[in-house]
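Narrative progress, year one. The postdoctoral researcher (J.K.) led the effort to move from monomer predictions toward full complexes, under supervision of the PI. The following entry was the first complex the group processed end to end, covering 384 residues in total.
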Amino acid sequence: MSAADISSPKRDHLMATAWRLFYRDGYRAVGIDMILAEAGVAKMTLYNHFASKEELIIAVLEKRDCEFRQSIIAKVEAAGLDPEQRLLAVFDWVEGWFGSEGFRGCAFIRALSEYPDPAHPIHQTAWHHKLAVLSALKDLCTAAGAKDAESLANTLGLLIDGAIIAAHATCTTAPARSARATAASLLKLAAA
Amino acid sequence: MSAADISSPKRDHLMATAWRLFYRDGYRAVGIDMILAEAGVAKMTLYNHFASKEELIIAVLEKRDCEFRQSIIAKVEAAGLDPEQRLLAVFDWVEGWFGSEGFRGCAFIRALSEYPDPAHPIHQTAWHHKLAVLSALKDLCTAAGAKDAESLANTLGLLIDGAIIAAHATCTTAPARSARATAASLLKLAAA
DNA sequence: CACAAAATAGACAGACCTGTCTATTTTCTT
DNA sequence: AAGAAAATAGACAGGTCTGTCTATTTTGTG
């Protein structure tokens, strides 16, 4: 869209550093100066690539959105052809994510929380990610023969988001298995 | 616990104002000065009642925790004696909450998000609230004849937290009904 | 009334924040 | 090698933040 979207080594490095710090400490808690110091980049370089901190945050979220969904899709593809197994593979992916080093919840949920005004650009960017995941879930539900695929996908989305919060607060992966088990039950009901 | 816990008009007024602003804009986004200006109170009055902003946030969350749970319990009691209806009344309460003026998600989820370090006092305070709600849910599940009440309560907790996020982002109450319908199905399965 | 406790305004410190500007150096391309 | 583009350090502005301090006034109580 904008010229700032063109990839460049400095830009990528800034986004990677920003992502790491934002995810660890929060969007408001991390200042521009800290990102610059950690990345070893001059301030004007950042402001030549991004118009503002807000644009940097949005760029980081959009990049992360792509990576996330690709990672989920890869897990689904690796699960084979059985539609039920493919759907449940999402929950296996979630469990692996919960157990990953430095897991601190969902960056998008946290963005929704830190920018609670639904009209805020960051809030909306974060929500678009959730909608994209729901859309992918719906396709998996349809393939698995669910009667009301959209409704089931939305419910599975609730389970996943709830599990993220529980896993973040408890530092455990157990919520993923609860969500998975419930998803399996719901799928059975919806396909009957 | 501490002397600061003693109630006083000024203290209560500060906490009410702080709650309103924190909930509307976020914990980090709202500064002490804004709370003081809005409440019409001198800075030293605040710091005589609270050792720090962090303590103020924790005090506000703890107070809100009590009010929340009492409000839920009242709704459950008003639902009568049927155990299933009592459990589902929680979801009716949630729907009413989602539709309330100025709804901006869950202050506790947002506290978990803004203070993502699980060791942070604010993070832990917020999680204690969620645990208390889960405990109450478990009692309702037990009364409703669920085989594994704790497991069911945890799953219902996932649904509720997920619904909160969806309702916040979409400004709708629909997620509450999705969660309620799913809860009814799960209860039937668990009581069979 | 008199005394003590609570609250007040407002200055202040020291740090941090985002974003701008300039002058210089490095890097890339031709 | 030469010119253009990108990146650099670092100062700077103007504002915000939390928390402290003082001197004064209000409030509540015996």
